[in-house]
Amino acid sequence: MAKFFGNLHLVLAAGLALALVVMFAAHPGMVDANGVFRWLHLFFGITWIGLLYYFNFVQIPTMPKIPAELKPGVSKHIAPAALFFFRWAALLTVVTGLVVAWLAGYVHQALMLQAPYLLIGIGMWLALIMAANVWFVIWPNQKKALGIVAADDAAKAKAASVAMMASRTNTLLSLAMLYCMVNFS
Protein backbone atom coordinates (compact mmCIF):
# COMPACT_ATOMS: atom_id res chain seq x y z
CA MET A 1 0.00 0.00 0.00
CA ALA A 2 2.80 2.45 0.79
CA LYS A 3 4.20 1.93 -2.71
CA PHE A 4 0.81 2.69 -4.26
CA PHE A 5 0.16 5.82 -2.17
CA GLY A 6 3.75 6.92 -2.69
CA ASN A 7 3.09 7.21 -6.44
CA LEU A 8 0.95 10.27 -7.20
CA HIS A 9 0.31 9.15 -10.79
CA LEU A 10 -1.10 5.80 -9.65
CA VAL A 11 -3.29 7.50 -7.05
CA LEU A 12 -4.64 9.95 -9.65
CA ALA A 13 -5.28 7.15 -12.15
CA ALA A 14 -7.12 5.14 -9.50
CA GLY A 15 -9.09 8.24 -8.47
CA LEU A 16 -10.08 8.85 -12.10
CA ALA A 17 -11.12 5.21 -12.49
CA LEU A 18 -13.20 5.40 -9.30
CA ALA A 19 -14.84 8.63 -10.48
CA LEU A 20 -15.75 7.00 -13.80
CA VAL A 21 -17.23 3.97 -12.01
CA VAL A 22 -19.29 6.28 -9.79
CA MET A 23 -20.44 8.37 -12.77
CA PHE A 24 -21.60 5.40 -14.80
CA ALA A 25 -22.95 3.39 -11.86
CA ALA A 26 -24.97 6.28 -10.43
CA HIS A 27 -26.30 7.44 -13.81
CA PRO A 28 -26.10 4.57 -16.29
CA GLY A 29 -26.57 5.90 -19.80
CA MET A 30 -27.03 9.45 -18.51
CA VAL A 31 -23.45 10.74 -18.27
CA ASP A 32 -23.27 13.78 -20.53
CA ALA A 33 -20.52 16.10 -21.67
CA ASN A 34 -21.78 18.98 -19.52
CA GLY A 35 -21.60 16.87 -16.38
CA VAL A 36 -18.08 15.70 -17.21
CA PHE A 37 -16.90 19.24 -17.94
CA ARG A 38 -18.53 20.59 -14.76
CA TRP A 39 -16.64 17.92 -12.81
CA LEU A 40 -13.37 18.80 -14.56
CA HIS A 41 -14.04 22.50 -14.02
CA LEU A 42 -14.49 21.89 -10.30
CA PHE A 43 -11.34 19.74 -10.10
CA PHE A 44 -9.15 22.27 -11.89
CA GLY A 45 -10.76 25.15 -9.98
CA ILE A 46 -10.04 23.53 -6.62
CA THR A 47 -6.45 22.95 -7.71
CA TRP A 48 -6.06 26.57 -8.88
CA ILE A 49 -7.69 28.29 -5.92
CA GLY A 50 -6.14 25.82 -3.47
CA LEU A 51 -2.68 26.75 -4.72
CA LEU A 52 -3.59 30.46 -4.71
CA TYR A 53 -4.54 30.13 -1.05
CA TYR A 54 -1.43 28.05 -0.30
CA PHE A 55 0.77 30.84 -1.72
CA ASN A 56 -1.09 33.61 0.12
CA PHE A 57 -1.91 31.92 3.43
CA VAL A 58 1.24 29.78 3.83
CA GLN A 59 4.20 30.42 1.55
CA ILE A 60 4.28 34.25 1.34
CA PRO A 61 3.80 34.83 5.10
CA THR A 62 6.20 32.01 6.07
CA MET A 63 9.15 32.81 3.76
CA PRO A 64 10.52 35.67 5.91
CA LYS A 65 10.67 33.28 8.90
CA ILE A 66 12.66 30.59 7.04
CA PRO A 67 16.42 30.61 7.68
CA ALA A 68 18.38 31.84 4.64
CA GLU A 69 20.10 28.49 4.10
CA LEU A 70 16.72 26.72 3.80
CA LYS A 71 15.02 29.21 1.43
CA PRO A 72 16.48 27.61 -1.74
CA GLY A 73 14.48 24.48 -0.91
CA VAL A 74 11.33 26.50 -1.45
CA SER A 75 12.49 28.87 -4.19
CA LYS A 76 14.31 26.26 -6.30
CA HIS A 77 12.07 23.23 -5.80
CA ILE A 78 8.67 23.78 -4.17
CA ALA A 79 7.64 27.14 -5.66
CA PRO A 80 8.46 26.28 -9.32
CA ALA A 81 6.53 22.99 -9.05
CA ALA A 82 3.57 24.67 -7.35
CA LEU A 83 3.59 27.47 -9.95
CA PHE A 84 3.50 24.88 -12.77
CA PHE A 85 0.28 23.35 -11.42
CA PHE A 86 -1.04 26.80 -10.46
CA ARG A 87 -0.84 28.31 -13.93
CA TRP A 88 -2.07 25.22 -15.81
CA ALA A 89 -4.94 24.74 -13.36
CA ALA A 90 -5.90 28.39 -13.96
CA LEU A 91 -5.98 27.87 -17.71
CA LEU A 92 -7.85 24.57 -17.52
CA THR A 93 -10.37 26.03 -15.05
CA VAL A 94 -11.18 28.82 -17.49
CA VAL A 95 -11.32 26.53 -20.53
CA THR A 96 -13.56 23.94 -18.84
CA GLY A 97 -15.77 26.71 -17.41
CA LEU A 98 -16.24 28.21 -20.86
CA VAL A 99 -17.04 24.75 -22.26
CA VAL A 100 -19.65 24.23 -19.51
CA ALA A 101 -21.27 27.58 -20.34
CA TRP A 102 -21.13 26.85 -24.07
CA LEU A 103 -22.63 23.36 -23.69
CA ALA A 104 -25.39 24.80 -21.50
CA GLY A 105 -26.05 27.51 -24.09
CA TYR A 106 -25.36 30.63 -22.06
CA VAL A 107 -21.70 31.52 -22.68
CA HIS A 108 -22.50 34.58 -24.81
CA GLN A 109 -25.20 35.96 -22.52
CA ALA A 110 -23.03 35.43 -19.44
CA LEU A 111 -20.00 37.15 -20.95
CA MET A 112 -22.24 40.01 -22.07
CA LEU A 113 -23.58 40.20 -18.47
CA GLN A 114 -27.17 39.67 -19.58
CA ALA A 115 -29.97 38.54 -17.27
CA PRO A 116 -30.51 35.89 -16.03
CA TYR A 117 -26.78 35.11 -16.39
CA LEU A 118 -25.44 38.26 -14.74
CA LEU A 119 -24.12 36.52 -11.60
CA ILE A 120 -22.24 33.76 -13.41
CA GLY A 121 -21.09 36.31 -15.99
CA ILE A 122 -19.50 38.41 -13.26
CA GLY A 123 -17.84 35.26 -11.92
CA MET A 124 -16.57 34.38 -15.39
CA TRP A 125 -15.08 37.84 -15.92
CA LEU A 126 -13.42 37.72 -12.49
CA ALA A 127 -11.95 34.32 -13.35
CA LEU A 128 -10.71 35.61 -16.72
CA ILE A 129 -9.02 38.57 -15.00
CA MET A 130 -7.50 36.23 -12.43
CA ALA A 131 -6.21 33.82 -15.08
CA ALA A 132 -4.70 36.70 -17.06
CA ASN A 133 -3.03 37.82 -13.84
CA VAL A 134 -1.57 34.32 -13.39
CA TRP A 135 -0.16 34.04 -16.90
CA PHE A 136 0.80 37.64 -17.69
CA VAL A 137 1.75 39.14 -14.32
CA ILE A 138 2.43 36.50 -11.65
CA TRP A 139 4.28 33.92 -13.75
CA PRO A 140 6.62 36.31 -15.63
CA ASN A 141 7.51 38.04 -12.37
CA GLN A 142 7.94 34.81 -10.44
CA LYS A 143 10.37 33.58 -13.09
CA LYS A 144 12.55 36.60 -12.28
CA ALA A 145 12.04 36.42 -8.51
CA LEU A 146 12.91 32.72 -8.38
CA GLY A 147 15.91 33.01 -10.70
CA ILE A 148 14.35 30.93 -13.46
CA VAL A 149 15.28 33.78 -15.82
CA ALA A 150 18.24 36.07 -15.31
CA ALA A 151 17.61 39.24 -13.30
CA ASP A 152 19.70 41.36 -10.96
CA ASP A 153 18.83 41.60 -7.27
CA ALA A 154 16.84 44.84 -7.68
CA ALA A 155 14.80 43.36 -10.54
CA LYS A 156 14.20 40.17 -8.51
CA ALA A 157 12.96 42.17 -5.51
CA LYS A 158 10.66 44.30 -7.69
CA ALA A 159 9.37 41.20 -9.51
CA ALA A 160 8.64 39.45 -6.19
CA SER A 161 6.67 42.48 -5.01
CA VAL A 162 4.66 42.72 -8.26
CA ALA A 163 3.92 38.98 -8.21
CA MET A 164 2.82 39.16 -4.57
CA MET A 165 0.47 42.10 -5.24
CA ALA A 166 -1.03 40.32 -8.26
CA SER A 167 -1.46 37.17 -6.20
CA ARG A 168 -3.15 39.14 -3.43
CA THR A 169 -5.37 40.76 -6.07
CA ASN A 170 -6.41 37.28 -7.17
CA THR A 171 -7.11 36.31 -3.57
CA LEU A 172 -9.33 39.40 -3.24
CA LEU A 173 -11.17 38.64 -6.50
CA SER A 174 -11.52 34.93 -5.69
CA LEU A 175 -13.96 35.54 -2.86
CA ALA A 176 -16.50 37.28 -5.11
CA MET A 177 -15.79 34.86 -7.97
CA LEU A 178 -16.51 31.86 -5.74
CA TYR A 179 -19.75 33.49 -4.54
CA CYS A 180 -20.87 33.95 -8.16
CA MET A 181 -19.97 30.39 -9.05
CA VAL A 182 -21.65 28.75 -6.07
CA ASN A 183 -24.84 30.82 -6.21
CA PHE A 184 -25.51 30.65 -9.94
CA SER A 185 -28.49 28.43 -10.69
From TrEMBL:
What is the protein named? Putative membrane protein
Q: Which InterPro entries match?
A: UCP032086, Urate_ox_N
Tell whether Ion transport is among the UniProt keywords: no
All residue ranges annotated as the Urate oxidase N-terminal domain in the record? 91-182
Per its UniProt record, what Pfam families does this chain match?
A: Urate_ox_N
Residues passing through the membrane, by range: 36-57, 78-105, 117-138
User: Which keywords fit this entry according to its UniProt record?
Assistant: Membrane, Transmembrane, Transmembrane helix
| The organism of origin for this protein | Sphingobium fontiphilum
Superkingdom in the source lineage = Bacteria
